[in-house]
Amino acid sequence: MGVDGIGARVARKEDRRFLTGKGRYTDDMSVPGLKYAVFVRSPHAHATITGIDATAARAMPGVIDVLDGKQLLADGIGNLICGWMIHSKDGSPMKMGAWRPLADKTVRYVGDAVAIVVADSVAEARDAAEAVVVDYDLLPVVTDPLQALAYGEPQLHPEAPNNLIFDWELGDAAAVDRALAAAAHVTELKIYNNRLAPNPMEPRATLGIYDAGDDHYTCYTTSQNPHLARLVMSAFYNVAPENKLRVIAPDVGGGFGSKIYIYPEEIVCLWASKRTGVPVKWTCDRTEAFLTDAHGRDHVSTVKMAFDAGNRITALKVDTIANLGAYMSLFSSCVPTYLYATLLSGQYDIPAIHANVRSVYTNTVPVDAYRGAGRPEATYLLERTMETAARELGISPAELRRTNFIRSFPHQTPVIMNYDAGDYEASLNAAMTAADWSGFAARKAEAEGRGMKRGIGMSCYIEACGLAPSAAVGSLGAGVGLWESAEVKVNMAGTIEVMTGSHSHGQGHETTFAQLVADRLGLPIDSINIVHGDTDKVQMGMGTYGSRSGAVGMSALAKALDKVEAKAKKIAAHLMEADESDIVIEDGALKVAGTDRSVPWFQMALAAYTAHNLPPGLEPGLKESAFYDPANFTFPAGCYICEVEVDPETGRTHIVQFVAADDFGNIINPMIVEGQVHGGLAQGIGQALLEGVRYDDSGQLLTASYLDYAMPRADDVPSFNVSTSNTPCPNNPLGVKGCGEAGAIGSPPALINAITDAIGNNQLTMPATPEKVWAAAQAAH
Length: 781
Prior knowledge:
Layout: H1 15-19, E1 35-41, E2 47-53, H2 55-58, E3 63-68, H3 69-74, E4 106-107, E5 113-119, H4 122-131, E6 133-138, H5 145-148, E7 164-171, H6 173-182, E8 185-193, E9 205-211, E10 216-221, H7 226-235, E11 245-248, H8 264-276, E12 280-283, H9 286-292, E13 299-307, E14 313-323, E15 353-360, H10 375-393, H11 397-404, E16 411-412, E17 418-419, H12 424-434, H13 440-449, E18 453-462, H14 470-475, E19 484-490, E20 496-500, H15 509-521, E21 528-531, H16 549-576, E22 583-586, E23 589-592, E24 598-600, H17 601-610, E25 623-628, E26 637-646, E27 653-663, H18 670-689, E28 720-725, H19 742-759, H20 770-779
Parallel strand pairs: 1-12, 10-11, 14-15, 20-21, 27-28
Antiparallel strand pairs: 1-5, 2-4, 2-6, 3-5, 7-15, 8-13, 9-10, 9-12, 13-14, 16-17, 18-26, 19-20, 19-25, 22-23, 23-24, 26-27
Helix pairs in contact: 10-19, 15-16, 16-17, 18-19
């Protein structure tokens, strides 16, 4: 490892522009003739559109035009789609209802777009939007997913009777039922996983530009995967031919999954630019984000866990109802199925598992992936159940987990996944030592003396990252492959440009990807430039989500670097009249091993392009590309321990300490990994204590601002004690596993387990607000 190479704590290169206000986000983009868009949105959760009158709005100052869904339909713009096919257990395909970018007949949630106003300024567009008259016939509303499945409830889509999208199962139901019948003990729980709003720092935005001279479209957008945006908008939505559409995702201020998808606004702004002949930019405000950004989670589950007389798990039975909102978003179907049920084995050797998942439409914002996407839901269900079982069995929650850990690898679970490597006991031991688990009883007694209730909780998580291989996800219904690409260009002076299909929206790729190159070629990190987020510059890519950038994106880069190294060694060997097998690359030079003969890297690069003295048959230049499709997912895992004090008089929870012991495999930059874990922990704590999207019975969003939707603040989170162990992933060239989602996955059950331990009442749902905690504590006594 060099100063800037793999394993070094290199400060993020990109932070200089972010911290000095020099970032370039979509809303910063400006082009000649730019106009601004505001969307007219439904104030009703369910209604038929009977008429739209934009006459007055079109006559207002600064207004270019007002466009509606009928015009969009007449121009052949298609429906938004879900890109992952799920079949119900009877073999029937999922029931995907029509989602128009601008509703032309029916609106199905508050915020559903019905028209776009384009004007000289945002203020003029907003004034005109208020002047657009939309007539509605109101329809019955259903927001509760359990109620939505009942016969006679309001129907959202004619394709989905009783609002059922699919009724899907995984595992061996008969084996599970036999084990439950023979069990020495069965733990049963009802688990609620609360709905969340993603709240990235930068709201969504898009700028659509149509160039009539070249018949070409450009879309600037806050996307986590611009190539997929181009593919979907061209192949499925008929916005523009793929070869005439450029999608650029410049600096993006966070995503957490909510910017994976294609939303109506990108489609409509590109279309409106062609219709009006002007560039059209839309920037979401925060309330609009609450109303329209895809939400996350929202599961209601029942679980039964069977144990034998030795406290070993013999079976797990799960029934889940997943609320997908008013429409199926791009990846919504895979979140409560293959990203959820396949992880229900957790870190435990469970012989039989069966999961049944019913997904349902309601008159709420569409639900899709949010940091962790299915893995947090699985972990919360499993780890709350394990903690509850330990209490019922009267044994230590640590020892119950230890008894059931998987100890040999590879390990085939009953729910598809084949775990490749891990050491779960190492993480458990590290966390217990760091948390001084054995000293908790004394701390609890001391707190009791001060009138406080102290509790400790544990969570052992595992997740599947990398979101590949393509053949596997294709067989499970994915509409695209999940490989990644990279291209390495060595310039004539020896500097490096890397074009990656991964996308950075806060992960630090410009640093970590450069560290890999610096480590391999012995070059200073400042001589390496990382290019991403532009479909005209990067050959192709699948973007960033599911902690896949290191395991898949950087593995593609490693393969491209293999090719660069091989060619560079051929050139250097020829220049020094040495054997190619004797050439090594280190300290910015190509050297003949065991001698003092060397060629500086820049000299080799220059020779590659001047081509005056190349080996016979070797073409000039030094630019290589690679695609990487891994053989398996990666499986980060860890143990989290949370210790809390609860004030029984107010119900307020104070986190005394939070310990996170993770196994991420090999680590490129420890400082960035720690930052990722810290951020994930804060989001998980937010879900457990504070956050929750709420609708009333009429479908109105009650949590549409930060006055009503509580986000974690600095005094809500402690200083985290984080550490890592390492069992390298055997299925990618770097041995990395992924770290971006771990904190959000493992922290909610650890915190809720700690609170319920403190108050002596296991009946507590997220968010554990002071009111809920106080009521649960009172009910326990």
